[in-house]
C-alpha cells in the first residue's frame, strides 16, 4: 500500500487483486478475491491483463499459477507489486523459483525485493537509559562494529500498559536486482552467495537496520534479536 500510494494515480491505470481489500484507494480499481465466484489471484490477474493496466498489485503470490502469471505480466511491460513469504529479501527470489518460475525469466522480470519485520517502539512517556546484557552487547557489536554502552528503554507506564513499548515501526531490507545480482541468481548461486554480493554492493541487512534503530533510540536490542535474528 505504501508503494501504491507513491504512484501517480491520475495518469496511470492501477489495478489490484486482494484478499481482502484492506484499504480503499481513490482512483485505483481494486478487486476482491472471491473463490465462490472463481476469482483467485491467478484468474484475477489474467482478467485485469485484458484491461490495459500500467500497474498491477497482487495481494500475495501463494502458488505456481499466480507466480507464473505475475512474472508474465512483468515481462510484458507491467509494473507488478506483490508480497511473498520468505525469510529475507534475497529469499524472495528463491521462493519464486521454488514455485516453478524459471530463473532466466525471473532475472528479466524482477526489479528488486523488500523484506520487512515489525519491532515495538520504545514508549516516549517512560523512557530511560539502561545497560545491555552480555548477549545484547555481543549482538550489537557484531553488526555495528562498535560497543553498546547503554540504550533507551521504557520502564512501563499507564500510556503503554506497563510494557515499556508504544506502537511499532518497520525494519526493512532492500535488494535491488542489479546486473551482477541477476547474473549470480541465474547461474544458480546460493542465497548466501547472493547476499554476500548484495552486501558488498551496499545492501543494508535487516540486522543492521534493526540495530540502527537501537542506536537511534527507537527500539531495543531484545526486540531486534527476537524479531529479526531468529529469521534473518
> Poorly predicted ranges (pLDDT <50, ≥5 residues)?
none
> What is the CATH architecture assignment of the largest domain?
3-Layer(aba) Sandwich
Classified in CATH, the superfamily of the largest domain is P-loop containing nucleotide triphosphate hydrolases
What is the count of β-strands? 8
Explain what this protein looks like in three dimensions.
Strand 3 (55-58), helix 3 and strand 4 (79-82) form a beta-alpha-beta unit. With 232 residues, the chain is an alpha/beta fold. The chain starts with a helix and ends with a helix. The chain has ten helices and eight strands. It is 38% helix and 21% strand.
Key phrases:
38% helix, 10 helices, Rossmann fold, 232 residues, alpha/beta, two-stranded antiparallel sheet
Topology, element by element:
Blueprint lengths: L1 H4 L8 E5 L10 E4 L8 H8 L6 E4 L5 H12 L3 E4 L6 H10 L4 H7 L2 E11 L4 E4 L3 H11 L6 E4 L10 E12 L2 H8 L4 H10 L5 H10 L5 H9 L3
Parallel strand pairs: 1-2, 1-3, 3-4
Antiparallel strand pairs: 5-8, 6-7
Helix pairs in contact: 2-3, 3-5, 5-7, 7-8, 9-10
Amino acid at each position: 500500500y505504501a508503494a501504491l500510494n507513491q504512484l501517480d494515480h491520475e495518469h496511470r491505470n492501477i489495478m489490484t487483486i486482494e484478499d481482502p481489500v484492506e484499504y480503499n484507494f481513490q482512483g485505483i480499481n481494486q478487486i476482491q478475491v472471491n473463490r465462490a465466484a472463481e476469482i483467485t489471484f491467478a484468474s484475477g490477474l489474467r482478467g485485469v491483463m485484458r484491461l490495459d493496466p500500467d500497474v498491477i498489485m497482487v495481494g500475495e503470490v501463494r502458488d505456481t499459477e499466480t507466480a507464473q502469471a505475475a512474472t508474465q505480466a512483468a515481462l510484458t511491460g507491467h509494473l507488478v507489486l506483490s508480497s511473498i513469504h520468505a525469510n529475507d529479501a534475497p529469499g524472495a527470489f528463491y521462493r519464486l523459483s521454488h514455485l516453478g518460475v524459471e530463473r532466466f525469466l525471473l532475472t528479466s522480470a524482477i526489479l528488486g525485493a523488500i523484506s520487512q519485520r515489525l519491532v515495538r517502539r520504545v514508549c516516549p512517556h517512560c523512557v530511560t537509559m539502561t545497560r545491555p546484557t552480555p548477549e545484547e552487547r555481543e549482538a550489537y557489536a557484531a553488526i555495528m562494529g562498535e560497543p553498546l554502552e547503554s540504550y533507551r528503554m521504557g520502564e512501563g507506564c499507564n500510556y503503554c500498559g506497563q510494557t515499556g513499548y508504544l506502537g511499532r515501526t518497520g525494519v526493512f531490507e532492500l535488494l535491488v536486482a542489479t546486473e551482477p545480482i541477476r547474473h549470480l541468481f541465474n547461474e544458480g548461486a546460493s542465497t548466501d552467495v547472493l547476499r554476500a554480493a548484495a552486501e558488498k554492493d551496499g545492501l543494508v541487512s535487516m540486522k543492521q537496520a534493526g540495530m540502527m534503530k537501537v542506536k537511534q533510540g527507537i527500539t531495543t536490542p531484545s526486540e531486534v534479536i527476537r524479531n529479526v535474528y531468529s529469521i534473518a
